[in-house]
Amino acid sequence: MPERTVAVGDPLPEFSGRTDSGSTVERAGLAGRPAVLFFYPKAGSPGCSIESREFARRLPEFTAAGVRVVGVSVDSATAQKRFRETCDLPFDLIADDDGAISRQFGVLGGLGVARRTTFLIGADGRVLEVVRSWRPRRHAEAAIARLVRGAAGPAADAAPEPKG
User: Fold this and answer.
1) 16-148: what CATH class?
2) Exactly one of 25, 35, 36, 48 is catalytic; which is it?
3) What is the domain partition of the chain in residue ranges?
4) pLDDT digit of tens for each residue in the chain (164 aa)?
5) Known active-site residue 48
6) What is the DSSP letter of 154?
7) What is the CA radius of gyration of the chain?
8) Distance of CA 131 to the CA centre of its chain
9) pTM of the model
10) Angstrom distance (rounded) from CA 108 to CA 67
């Protein structure tokens, strides 16, 4: 039976993950301010590079609004570090190399990688919006619209998500 995906209105699940720099990111550390938790399939792949660079490019807008940005993939800390350096990413990247966090959020795909999914989290720790889109730039756009500009609306594209 497929695992339940964390949905709009749900409290952010308890989780703890190590970043490529060895620090820990956990639910408690995201409390009290809005946050973006974006899951991507593969560090260094073209789509994931576009998505992550878009979050990096828009980071000043997120920072000005008090929004924390964190990326997650099932890659190792070494792969995440290389990805951070290659793409010049100024935010935390969680190395979910055992897939536990991706499973907990219900985004682990059949091929053992996270499906491209972004959770927009309110300061109260509840999920405000879930973005599921194969379009890499759509995730940062939706996060800016909701968490920086305060506009609610459908975040997912009409196009179906690819499998895996």
Assistant:
1) alpha beta
2) 48
3) 16-148
4) 346 789 999 999 999 999 999 999 999 999 899 999 999 999 999 999 999 999 999 999 999 999 999 999 999 999 999 999 999 999 999 999 999 999 999 999 989 999 999 999 999 999 999 999 989 999 999 999 999 988 654 444 333 344 34
5) yes
6) -
7) 14
8) 9
9) 0.89
10) 25
